[in-house]
Amino acid sequence: MSDIKVLRPHAEDDYAAELKALAKADEHPRPQSWNLSPWAVVTYLMGGKLDDGTEIEPKYFGNRRLIEIAVATLVTDRALLLTGIPGTAKTWVSEHLAAAISGSSTLLVQGTAGLNEESLRYGWNYARLLSEGPSEKALVPSPIMVAMQNGKISRIEELTRIPSDVQDALITLLSEKSLPIPELNTEVQARPGFNLIATANNRDKGVNELSSALRRRFNTVVLPLPSSLEQEVEIVKTRVEKIGQSLELPPEITPVREIQRLVTIFRELRSGKTEDGRTRVKSPSSTLSTAEAISVINSGQALAVHFGDGALKANDLAASLTGAIVKDPSQDQSIWQEYLETVVRDRDDWKDLYRACKELF
């Protein structure tokens, strides 16, 4: 990687030292074209300490067995589909799996409603096509085609956002492990190491459902929300510290108290009841995911650093918190106000947060 600083380094660049240390210490059998063994890939995702003392930072906080299933899937000829509600680290996991296995996480197709089949197969340089006719030089390979040619992992984000007729272009790729190019009377055959990781959002269910033929070609792993308050707080704390470094925010003490309060609010509104189970609350239309909590804390820190004394306080948190919860003003605002009056106001050590949020109405 060059010395030019980027806002968000690729996983293989950001964690290059860990990947190098794992490769050096890895004595387990590696599938053909894999940079690391399945054991080392799981260690990279879940964290651990190597024999030489190198600390591997956890990338995923959750059930280790889920990551083992995901990695085992990629060893076979089955593609991997990661599903879950927004903010359950689907993209994060897919990126780090590709980085650990192939050394590159950049062979990516971003699924959108306007995606065409060329983005999954190949396109053409039309200037060369008009002047030379169909040729290899005029061919523009998709990231999936490049992965097939080089035995790498390719990624598709938001698979169910892609139109159904375009999705079906994947069937031949995944079943035959080949990509026909009829214009050149040839094909690209996948090399060992090629596989595909796709992600799909449970909230998009019914938008462009996968056909049964395509779904059979994937092993599906559902990534759940964090199981406990403590686990979710740890995830948010870890990611906030990491993102704060990349954004060059001052290295102040991590605002653990505000993170705990924020995560508690999100979990209670998601579940429809308080953590002690004594009070029922209404749930807003917003997702209130772990990723959203990370964004709220980062926004609050930016306010504190640039318009406050640098320490994240309730009034810094309140603005971003309200924006995260009230996505549909006609529905969510009354739900948020009711939660403030019935839950937040009655908590003795939350008076500052209650006042800060009320001031915004």
Brief descriptors of the model:
361 residues, 2 domains, two-stranded antiparallel sheet, 16 helices, globular
Folded structure, characterized:
- The protein is of the alpha/beta class and 361 residues long.
- The chain has 2 domains: 11-222, P-loop containing nucleotide triphosphate hydrolases (Rossmann fold, 3-Layer(aba) Sandwich), CATH 3.40.50; 229-358.
- 46% of the residues lie in helices and 12% in strands.
- It has 16 helices and 11 strands.
- The chain has helices at 11-14, 16-25, 38-46, 64-75, 90-102, 126-132, 143-150, 164-167, 170-176, 212-215, 229-246, 256-271, 290-307, 314-325, 329-344, 351-358, and strands spanning 48-49, 55-56, 79-84, 108-110, 122-124, 139-141, 153-157, 178-181, 186-189, 195-201, 218-222.
- The chain has a 5-stranded parallel sheet.
- α3 (38-46) crosses α5 and α11 (229-246) crosses α12 (256-271).
- The termini are far apart.
- The model has no long low-confidence stretch (mean pLDDT 90).
Short description:
This protein is α/β, with parallel strands linked by helices and 361 residues long. It is built from 16 helices and eleven strands.
Just give the CATH class of the largest domain: Alpha Beta
The class by helix and strand makeup works out as alpha/beta
Question: Which architecture of the largest domain per CATH?
Answer: 3-Layer(aba) Sandwich
Low-pLDDT residue spans: none
Do you know the CATH topology of the largest domain?
Rossmann fold
Order of helices and strands: HHHEEHEHEEHEHEHHEEEHEHHHHHH
**How many strand units?**
11
Give average pLDDT, whole number: 90
The total domain count is 2
Quaternary state of this entry equals single chain
